[in-house]
Write a structure and sequence with these properties.
alpha+beta; Rossmann fold; Elongation Factor Tu (Ef-tu), domain 3; 3 domains; disordered N terminus; binds guanosine-5'-triphosphate; binds magnesium ion
Length: about 425
């Protein structure tokens, strides 16, 4: 996962929504109409379209580059694209909609500030759309722009658009997301994507690009809620016998003179120097890789953490919200490798507490999770973890469950229960 950045003119967004609703076509349209593609790239897309017999220019081929993607007409892996307009830079993650690739969608959304939700206006919000929006919100995305797509097929009728607006507003309110914007578009024809269209005279809002340019960047809810965090990646031993600790700064900047706690040992000390390959820093910003020299001798190892106040929690038992991607169900008693920041340990599922019903965002009593379910579990670990609630920090608040035998990632997990889901009576 990427660090939280402070760069204000950069917006990271991910496309989310059900299979075939038009996410890749919309991104293709956005890139073509803002002239991000070179002529030879466009020619390659046109050539591939004709070769595959899908018309003159299948815009989904701009991001769907894998052979299997073009043959099956679906997105499988996340495609990252970079775009720049006169007012803003964008990092775009075009995610797959197929339920089988929900894991990839979660990866794409995990670094996004904003979700560009694509909904086929002739069908409305599907369960998979709701699942994606729910996962995006759990992953910390706090802004939604919704493209009510295929309006050409809906003959630009206002009713299906209004129905989507109502559903989106209800969903966003439950997830604690303010002011979702819904735009009626045809990604295929380019209406209201970059260029305003007069096909919907009843709509007076922005185009998709206009909404993306106006959206505040860095919409991450947890910014400012934790102190500096430096998960120790490497311990550097110097000829003098001194140890320094290398890793990436997260949460808040770290500076010489800062009082830090070494965790889980619980040793209080002070930062003496913050070094980089380019010399010492007066302040190391979030995202910077540094080598930290401490005032006292300390016995830390890889996987330990240096932290400034407000401090994280040290625990070997936690409640987490998990997105389960294993083919076999997740049940009580299972054992996994837990990878949290730079630490790896063994974890046991003490209890599967509940499953999230993505259609109405409630928790149902359930002691197992099936593939692509979202649920709440209690996990205990062999070694203590140094965690923050996911809502406060994306890095220290998340971990993955890995199959010990195959090394496959089976779940993405966030520390804490989902705030939106109230237990059912
Ligand atoms: N008529 C019409 N067809 C569209 C529009 N947008 C997309 N399509 C078509 O819908 C189909 C699916 O489009 P994609 O862009 O591949 O959909 P996707 O959401 O990226 O699909 P996955 O990535 O597999 O989830 C393609 O045949 C597109 O040409 C639109 O605005 N109008
Ligand atoms: Mg796609």
């Amino acid at each position: 996962m990427a660090p939280q950045t402070q760069v204000m003119d950069l917006l990271r967004f991910a496309t989310v929504g059900s299979v075939d609703d038009g996410k890749s076509t919309l991104i293709g349209r956005l890139l073509v109409d803002t002239r991000q593609l070179f002529d030879d790239q466009l020619e390659a897309v046109a050539h591939a379209s004709v070769t595959r017999g899908v018309g003159d220019l299948d815009l989904s081929f701009v991001t769907d580059g894998l052979r299997a993607e073009r043959e099956q007409g679906i997105t499988i892996d996340v495609a990252y694209r970079y775009a720049a307009t006169p007012t803003r830079k964008f990092i775009i993650a075009d995610c797959p909609g197929h339920v089988q690739y929900t894991r990839n969608m979660a990866t794409g959304a995990s670094t996004a500030d904003l979700a560009l939700v694509v909904v086929d206006a002739t069908a409305g919000l599907k369960e998979q759309t709701r699942r994606h929006v729910c996962i995006a919100a759990l992953l910390g995305v706090r802004r939604l722009i919704v493209a009510a797509n295929k309006m050409d097929l809906a003959e630009w009728a206002r009713d299906p658009f209004d129905a989507i607006v109502t559903d989106v507003e209800q969903l966003a309110a439950r997830l604690g997301i303010d002011n979702p914007i819904v735009v009626p578009v045809s990604a295929l024809n380019g209406d209201n994507v970059v260029d305003p269209s007069d096909a919907a005279p009843w709509y007076d809002g922005p185009t998709v690009l206009g909404a993306l340019e106006a959206a505040p960047a860095g919409g991450w809810a947890g910014e400012g809620k934790v102190g500096a965090r430096l998960p120790v990646q490497w311990v550097l031993r110097h000829p003098t016998g001194k140890r320094t600790y290398a890793g990436m700064v997260d949460g808040a900047p770290l500076a010489p003179g800062d009082e830090v706690m070494l965790l889980p040992e619980g040793i209080r000390t002070t930062v003496r120097r913050v070094a980089t390959a380019d010399g010492d820093l007066a302040v190391a910003p979030v995202g910077r890789c540094v080598d930290v020299d401490l005032a006292d001798d300390t016995p830390a190892g890889r996987g330990d953490m240096l932290a400034t106040a407000p401090l994280p929690e040290v625990t070997d038992r936690l409640v987490a919200t998990v997105c389960w991607f294993g083919e076999e169900p997740l049940t009580t008693g299972q054992r996994f490798r837990v990878k949290h920041t730079t630490r790896s340990t063994i974890g046991f599922v003490e209890h599967v507490d509940a499953r999230v019903d993505v259609n109405n965002l409630t928790l149902e009593d359930r002691d197992y999770l099936e593939a692509n379910d979202i649920g709440v579990v209690t996990i205990s670990t062999a070694d203590p973890l140094v965690v923050d609630p996911y809502g406060h920090n994306r890095i220290t608040g998340s971990f993955v469950l890995v199959d010990e035998r195959t090394n496959a990632t089976l779940a993405g997990a966030m520390v804490g229960a989902p705030s939106f889901a109230a237990p059912q009576p």
